[in-house]
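Hello, quick one for you while I still have it in my head. My current little project is about how a certain protein chain folds up. You're getting the sequence in one-letter code plus the fold written as tokens. Would you mind checking whether the tokens look sensible for this chain? Here's the protein in full, and shout if anything looks odd to you:
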Amino acid sequence: MLVPYAVAFFIAMLYGLSAVTEKLVLKVFSAKYLFIASGLLFGTVALIYLCFNYHEFRTNIRNSQLRHHGLLVLSVMAALIVPMYLWFNLLHDNDKVQVWSAITFSAPMFTLLFVYLLMDDDITKWNILGVSFVVVGTLLLAYDR
């Protein structure tokens, strides 16, 4: 039961590490170069993964409808392409990686809102309390004196 939580914290740790390493890389390369190079690397890894999972991929394509592909494109645009481009430019043009990371990765409050609006899920008092901690933590990290 703790495994999903450990995986989620591991992912969060990797995102935290990537913010710092990306800022270091942006001292040498432009944001556009990093965006393109990251996309090429991601695409290469995806193609290698596809080679090992081709049958599952083909089955998913055959069993899906066009609207599912539209949602996939929207998801990729919303989660990868647009944010990655904006993120690299934000890091390149500004200092205070910890501030931008905190604000950018304050996604739980938006996730809670979109789950409520788009999936008709309930919001509990514990959800609101958790998001409140995220907001307060983000404000504390962003407060620069």
Notes: DSSP finds seven helices and no strands in the chain. The radius of gyration is 18 Å. The CA atoms of residues 50 and 57 lie 7 Å apart.
